[in-house]
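Next comes a single protein record:
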Amino acid sequence: MPPPAPRVPVEERLFSLVLALLASDGGLTKADILSTVQGYRQRFSVRGDNTNLERQFERDKDDIRDLGVPLEVMQDEDSPGSNQSLRYRIPRGSYELPADVKFSAEESALLSLAAVVWREGSLSSESKRALLKLRSLGGAAEVPVLGYAPRLRVRDAAFDPLSSALEKQSIVRFSYLKPGETDARVRTVVPLALVQHQGRWHLSAIETDSGARKTFLLRRIVSRVAPTGRTQAPPEGDHSAVALRGLDEVWVAHAAAVEVEPESDADSRLSARPGSIRSASGTLELHYSDLNIVADELAAFGPEVLVLAPAELRDAVRSRLEAVAVDHAVDNAIDHARDHAPHQGAHHG
């Protein structure tokens, strides 16, 4: 039997459908859509029964219309009354921003930063291949949606191979370094979802050894993400939503009280963090998911920040500042020694 078709998230299928309908000025027939668009084509049968897939397309049409997307249906003059010859498209003029809507340079920059990963995550490799196939149908197949994508790239090296593993339902292996440990441990996992939380990418996955569902911070993956050559379909469910709920719970449960120098860089940056609350006395309450990461951030502000609580965070920040002081003292001692060392090549008696 052929392997089961890989599961495509609903949001990617809808996005791919909108992209395809925008890309073709002349519209696409139902057969064009079901055979080429990511999320449909994996289950499309050239000679078999596609009734369930056609029902899925009908539901998806309603969904994108509910989102405010103007979907047009055009009748083929040569085949009046035939549902199979109907052509679907999204007119770009109705979907683009109104001409009187303008953004300042600052607003455009903020929009770009808010969509920092759009360029990387908007199209999977499967969607890109489907777009190429759509071009072969004779449509213009431009990608106006991606014109709004910023030019910033995902920094975590593990992102691309993990994204590919999700598409292929591949079991992967990587070395992961937990905070406080000196040696990385090899983890073998079934990827479930890649999610961004508080500006950082996380992988939700099932460990094959224990069967436990865990969340990994991509920046702590210290090796190449290697496919094991095995595949496993993830269980049904919205794994992204589950992962984000878990990260939100951790973030809410951890809070720090800090004093900041008024009108300093620390004051402006930390007070703008999501969920930060300033008390009447000026103390800031900050939420965080990872003690070591927030300790690095707070230590970087130097004397502009004083951590009041919790004690373990205060100790972590202090240890980082002490390490900086020691390194600075060593550097000064080396420089002093160099400045006062006998001149090389001095006169010989």
